[in-house]
Write a structure and sequence with these properties.
The chain is of the alpha+beta class. Helix content is 44%, strand content 11%. It has an eight-stranded mixed β-sheet with strand order 5-4-3-6-7-1-2-8. A three-stranded antiparallel β-sheet has the order 13-15-14. Strand 14 (376-379) and strand 15 form a beta hairpin. The longest helix is centred in the middle third of the chain and has 23 residues, at 474-496. It is globular.
């Protein structure tokens, strides 16, 4: 059942959900009931009280599609404003889940699972209510996450009492403890803390004092997702706000089609399976300097400031001629083309002859850009400075405005084929080809994004390779001509933005498509023009990255993860182009936190059983090895020993595997941590097919240990790890290795059977 969202019924429905503190054994959780239309920012307040947090640290929500919600200015990564996101929009129905992380140092991860969406009962709907829970929470701020808290509770259960030091000063005397853990532990004894005691009624009384706020905006809906604006089938709404055809098999809208749920750009990117390499980017100040060197964009900014408190427009919505001439001079719009308009006397003489602002070339492009970017807004017969207008002296604001503008333009052009509605009816096969063609120009931008600095992309070869699946013939040539035209429009616009460079290109003739259409393959145009080569500037790469991040696509920047959490670090490392880059990133990340805290965060980030979780876990040894090398206290190793015994899925296995790697297995640990990690190593490649998996297994030095050799060594025991995907993985492995080692394939098939029989 999904939440009702009409204004008449808004307060009549409630969400009942379970919030569990991930990694705690025994588990700690709360069952809460709140109005369905509260903002996520208000839910944050409720969770803080429910678990005894004090609001001393940053926090964020993250939904299943990777969308993050937080206070607007708290984080350095793009997020949706949690005050504008309604609970019913993000978690509309029973079974929906999202995560809430508090304190990005300790990484207290809370998993929120919707148990019911129903009409409010008596006493529900005005305040949050606790309907159940398990175990009490002691004061846990800054204790080092769940592992630190588990250690504290273990000491409390053992009756360990810390010894204070008496301090006397100025006639006063007080006790000081050796660190926060001892101080909190002493407080537990003083308060008579009972870890198993929990009173839902008492918590409900505390929650009654928490004011609830309703969602105030629709920021999340603009980007798609539950509750988003509806769009026709076969279309998606990109981050520029426009509707575009969905690449790959989406047919044209017919009269019988009904509006469907909105598809966001992130869905389009996910459909083509993007995996972006980590890149290097200049700092904000250098990028902002590059923006200031983009003539058309800066002219639009200056024009917005020139409009200020209002400039009069004609009934046709353009500046009056006298004001237009002033704008060209006072806002220095002529700098868009200094070669053509730089001579002041010639410029003044020419402008004096022009009788309409619509005919003033120096004004045309800046005016259009200023309107498109929101730097100028028109109300009635006057133009004003727009809400999106950045301060020219503010590097961050200027760069952000440029990135938003170029991202919208790039997507609009690179994903939009020319309309085919007016083509003759006999060209239905062509229409089908276009609908099946991948978004090649956009994918070209992605390929250019990942190139090493200074390298070029050969556009002709890229587009030709991308059409390999299309049959030869006139229709394919027409699609090629359409692609070339789309590329030139996209690249030309990016050049104007200072985002790209081209060499060796030949602009296509205006009648290229018509020549192919009506003259046939042997007609007036015997070949498509050359597209030459293309590359993004560092500024262009930053703009494309901003778009990708907003769409939920991981796009790591080398040297930028020092303040990120361990999950982000582990997820990013596979994209790094060299081990040197990995080592430098890990060193920077470790420098920002104590070794023991780093170990806690990394182990905590290893939870889960899905392919994405496996990929994170596979990177953990690289980071844990660096942590152990840097740790001089032995606390990091103690964290691993405790985690190895915790039985937390994934976390325990990663810790146990690391301890075995260094030859110090913890007493009583799960003996199959290494086998679990071997299954993890295959899981992300299961969907890639037998050929790619076989290539991965055979990779490595001929005289060294290949993945296939490691697999053969432990094939008979892989099922013992209890990995939930073991049966599936072992079956796929058996098929993949059969052409090269039939005996090993047979052993793997037996192991797969055993894995299935243990479920």
């Amino acid at each position: 059942m999904t939440a009702q969202r009409s204004s008449r019924e808004r307060t009549a429905f409630v969400h009942q959900f379970k919030v569990a503190l991930v990694g705690m054994k025994p588990p700690v959780w709360r069952r809460l009931v709140v109005p369905s239309d509260i903002a996520l920012g208000s839910l944050h307040d409720v969770i803080q009280v429910a678990f005894g947090w004090e609001g001393m640290h940053l926090h964020a929500f993250e939904d299943r599609s990777g969308g993050r919600y937080a206070p607007r200015d708290d984080l350095d990564v793009p997020v949706f404003d949690e005050e504008e996101a309604g609970l019913a929009d993000v978690l509309p129905g029973t079974g929906d889940r999202m995560d809430y992380t508090y304190d990005f140092g300790d990484d207290w991860l809370h998993r929120i699972t919707v148990e019911a969406v129903r009409p409010a009962r008596e006493g529900e709907g005005e305040h949050a209510v606790c309907a159940g829970g398990r175990r009490a929470m002691p004061p846990a701020e800054d204790l080092g996450g769940v592992w630190g808290l588990a250690g504290l509770l273990e000491r409390y259960a053992d009756g360990e009492r810390p010894s204070p030091t008496l301090v006397r000063h100025g006639g006063e005397e007080w006790a000081e403890y050796d660190g926060l853990h001892d101080e909190v532990l002493a407080g537990l004894y003083e308060a008579g803390f009972d870890p198993v005691a929990f009173d839902p009624a008492e918590l409900t009384g505390e929650l009654a004092q928490v004011p609830l706020r309703r969602a105030v905006g629709t920021k999340r809906k603009r980007h798609g997702g539950p509750g988003g604006r509806q769009v026709p089938p076969g279309r998606y709404r990109c981050e520029c706000g426009g509707l575009h055809p969905l690449p790959g098999g989406a047919g044209p809208l017919t009269e019988d089609d009904e509006p469907d749920d909105e598809v966001s750009l992130s869905d389009v990117l996910g459909a083509v399976g993007l995996q972006l390499p980590a890149v290097r980017l200049p700092g904000e100040a250098e990028l902002a300097r590059a923006v200031r060197e983009v003539p058309a964009f800066m002219a639009a900014v200056r024009l917005g400031h020139w409009c200020g408190g209002g400039r009069e427009l004609t009934p046709k919505g353009v500046l009056r001629p006298k004001l237009a001439r002033q704008a060209v001079e006072e806002a220095e719009l002529w700098r868009v083309d200094p070669d053509g308009w730089g001579d002041a006397k010639e410029r003044a003489a020419w402008l004096a002859k022009v009788r309409s602002a619509a005919d003033m070339e120096p004004l045309a492009l800046p005016w259009d850009w200023a309107l498109d970017c929101g730097f100028v807004e028109v109300e009635g017969n006057r133009a004003y400075a727009g809400d999106e207008l950045p301060d020219q002296d503010d590097d961050a604001a200027l760069l952000s405005a440029w990135q938003e503008a170029v991202a919208g333009a790039a997507v609009e052009l690179s994903l939009s084929f020319p309309a085919l509605d007016e083509l003759p009816g006999g060209l239905q096969p062509l229409r089908e080809l276009v609908e099946e063609a991948p978004p090649l120009v956009f994918l070209m931008l992605i390929a250019a994004y990942g190139l090493p600095d200074g390298e070029w992309l050969a556009v002709d070869g890229f587009l030709t390779d991308g059409m390999e699946g299309l049959p030869e013939g006139p229709a394919r040539r027409l699609v090629s001509a359409l692609l070339i035209g789309q590329y030139h429009d996209t690249a030309g616009t990016l050049e104007l933005f200072g985002a790209a460079e081209r060499e060796g290109h030949e602009p296509p003739p205006t009648d290229a498509v018509l020549a192919l259409l009506f003259d046939g393959p042997d007609g007036g145009m015997r070949g498509t023009p050359s597209a030459g080569r293309f590359r993004l500037t560092p500024l262009g790469r930053s703009g494309l990255r901003a778009l990708l991040v907003a769409a939920g696509v991981p796009a790591p920047v080398i040297g930028s993860l020092a303040q990120e959490d361990a999950r982000a670090l582990l997820a990013a490392l596979p994209a790094y182009p060299s081990e040197t880059d990995v080592a430098a990133e890990v060193a920077g990340w470790l420098a920002a936190r104590p070794a023991a805290d780093a170990a806690v965060q990394v182990v905590d980030a290893c939870d889960g059983t899905e392919p994405a979780d496996a990929l994170r876990r596979l990177q953990a040894p690289r980071v844990l090895a660096a942590i152990l090398e840097a740790d001089r206290t032995g606390r990091a190793k103690a964290v691993l020993r405790k985690a190895a015994l915790s039985k937390v899925t994934g976390c325990a296995h990663a810790a146990a595997s690391m301890l075995r790697r260094i030859g110090e297995p913890a007493e009583g640990e799960d003996a199959w941590g290494l086998e679990w990690m071997l299954v993890d190593g295959v899981l992300p490649f299961v969907a890639a097919g037998e050929q790619l998996l076989r290539e991965q297994l055979l990779a490595g030095p001929e005289d060294g240990r290949r993945p296939l050799d490691q697999l053969a060594e432990r094939a008979d025991d892989l099922w013992r790890a209890g990995h939930p995907h073991a049966g599936e993985v072992l079956g796929v492995l058996a098929d993949a290795v059969k052409p090269v080692d039939k005996a090993l394939a047979k052993r793997l098939r037996k192991a797969a059977f055993k894995a299935g029989s243990t479920k």
